[in-house]
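Team,

Forwarding the record for the chain on the shared tracking sheet. I've put the sequence and predicted structure together so nobody has to dig through attachments.
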Amino acid sequence: MSKINTNTNGYTILFLVLMVIVVGGVLATVSSLAQPIIDKNVELDNKSKILASVKFEGEGQEVLTEYNDKIKAIAVNSEGKILKGVDGYSIKLKNEYKKPLEERQLPVFIYSKGKQKNYILPLIGLGLWDEVNGYVAFNRDLRTLKGAAFDHVGETPGLGSLITEPKFEDQFNDAIVYTKEKEYVLKVWKQGKSPGGKSNIDGLAGATLTTDGMENMLSNCIPNYESYFKTLKTKKKKKTK
């Protein structure tokens, strides 16, 4: 029986092909086994951010329990109508904002706890380097905020990344978004330029483009829900008659 000549180019190429197949198979198996864990971590992170906008503090199973018990995820269209059978959590917001407004499915997360009710809206925009996103939680009056929580993909550490810090986020606590005359007034100013007051947010030092991105994100996303808010106010008036 002749021995295989391991010094030929053919043998080397065959060996490399087999190694690629074996390593690729191992990596695919590891990836498939790890995917459920990755998905669970992503879910936990997303739901933590949603709840952070209403100032809930918890970890792990506490977050999932609070979300499951207190949150109702729905979707509405630009006319303010609730889309039946659509789970707001499953919607990919980035994809929706590529569509014309009249075609978008807009998620709403309704948080109910005793007499407290908040309407949490997801946001998405562009910072200096990449995506910025977050959630704002409206109070029952649909004019003011309970709070907000933000995140980013790749803003500069120590500058634009500070949108996730309490010093910035806490400015949204009790912030006025709409006047009693229904005028949108919330604004993120360049650092040091804010005139003060509950509608004006002081931006980040040394992060002008991230600050601009936050302002654009808020002013572009929140007004999409005005028809839905109008529907809620109409229902509320009918109940009080």
